[in-house]
Please model this.
Amino acid sequence: MLDIRLTETNRIAVIEAQGRVDSSTAGQLGDALTSAIDDGLVWIVLDLAGVDYMSSAGLREIVSALKKVRGAQGDMRIAQATERVYDVLEMSGLNTIFRIFDSRADAIHSF
Model:
């Protein structure tokens, strides 16, 4: 099960995910990211504090969203990745592509 909440602060979309991001739920995350981008929100903070597992399907969705926002002159940050999720980002090399912050506030203020 995956719960996704979107809030907006100063034209920055904060997408908070809670649960597991796997092959059956990754599409939900991708849909939330795409919806924000389609609504013109190209500065995105993806808060992963509540995500205890992320599969390669989830990684594909966040990389796809990053390409979309950068194509629209925006960017995406990751905030509060759990240790387990950070390890997956690190093993895949995505920690060198995404700016990852320990707090949501730091990620928001980085724009």
The beta strands are 2-9, 12-21, 43-54, 75-79, 99-101. The CA atoms of residues 19 and 51 lie 5 Å apart. The chain has a mean pLDDT of 96. Residues 2-109 form a domain with the Transcription Regulator spoIIAA fold (CATH 3.30.750.24).
